[in-house]
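Why run this: before we spend reagent on co-expression, it is cheaper to look at a predicted model of the complex and decide which construct boundaries make sense. The entries below are exactly what would go into the expression plan.
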Amino acid sequence: MSIETPDNLRYSKEDEWARREGNRVTVGVTDYAQQQLGDVVFVELPEAGKVVDRGEPFGVIESVKAVADLFSPVGGEIVEVNAALSQTPESVNEDCYGDGWMVVIELADPSEYDGLLDAAAYGDFVKSRSD
Amino acid sequence: MSGLRETPLAALHRKLGARMVPFAGFDMPVQYESIKREHAAAREAAALFDVSHMGQLHLTGPHALAATERLVTCPVATLRIGRVRYGCLCNLEGGVVDDVTVYRLADEHFMLCVNAANVEKDYRWVVQHGGEADVRDRSTETALIAVQGPTSRSCVAAVAADPDLVASMKRFRCVEAELAGRPMMLSSTGYTGSDGFEIYCDAGDAERLWQALADAGGEPAGLGARDTLRLEAALPLYGHELDDTTSPLEAGLDRFVKREAGGFIGAEAIERRAREGHPRKLAGFVLEGRGIARAEYPIASQGETVGVVTSGAPSPTLGKSIGLGYVPPALAEIGARFDVVVRDRPIPAVVVQTPFYTAPGK
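The model came back. Tokens follow.
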């Protein structure tokens, strides 16, 4: 089982990825997470405008077999939500770093982004758990 | 994975890339690549399941018939050699010790196929209440592979010395057959709601049989798909719909209980509980709002908790969120409405006829 971890992203230990553009961070679940979950059938996301802390659950993802919380890798206001996932939750399996994105967060504290794992460190973290 | 037991096929599952999870004390494949795809294989083609974790208790000797008749809720004296029936082992309070399939292999030889989690409990129960019948637990030496789906017949026929025997076999029969070049026991039974077979063989022959069935088009499928398949067929899962306190009648298993003849352990308690009125009945429901019902989610009516979900999942075949749960009898009627509480939010549900899915031609 090979895991994709693009170099241009940052990662949390709760298996979310984050991509910063200016002060905004796009968030989704990692390739490892979607493989572990299996066929994603349901994604529950908050309304735009909700403010979340780093590490706080902001939504729920369900596969045929499992239910998992989505934890925010950074704190801030949720300014965009991927509404298409309610119709096509399978995007999370097919394209977790693209069409499967979940929310965009306006960073409250930019240092939180810098504190996330880089691709190599996250890859090692995943490996350490599956050994 | 210390302490977990393995089936004779565990190494093969890992080689196939299965995700292994603990289930009933065994390290079992939950899925290979996709539960949805494996589910579809059992509805549209032929899926292979390793269910060697299940147990087999054999009762033999001149007292085997009387003992089995007393142990299970279904009629046994009328069970002919080569036939299979579904029933329950019940305790004195009418609760379900286990749900089992009963095989008559010879005049004085019966086999109970039991749930993996209950093998030791069942063995003790059967020895304790089996009178003078000889009881043997042959679970460890026996492997079991299920082949389920509309093309399962041709898949099994392809590995059989006598393909006509497979082609003409009616449901709920069992027969000795040479499969993959070895003597095995072929049973036209299953736990998916699709046409299919279960094949009992020596543990040492399991890999050879699996390989032959895979070469004949059988697609490996895990416990994840097995669970969504049995839920669509509204087949109970011990520990969810059934347990030591549940009467088989609460679970809607009336037609597997010899209510007039009685004469089995728990019969009096089951009838007494029926006379007094069951406080709850099992209902099959479809969610009408967005969300997925899961085991242990509360069921509410007008804001009051009135029941509990025992099994729930998105149905891959129907594209709806389905479930089973215990509710007061009035709410178990077809067309009744209640809410399933998903993360503190009530999602409307309606009670429907079960099974949710019926195979074409069945």
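The mean pLDDT of chain A is 95. DSSP finds four helices and nine strands in chain A. Bring this page to Monday's planning discussion.
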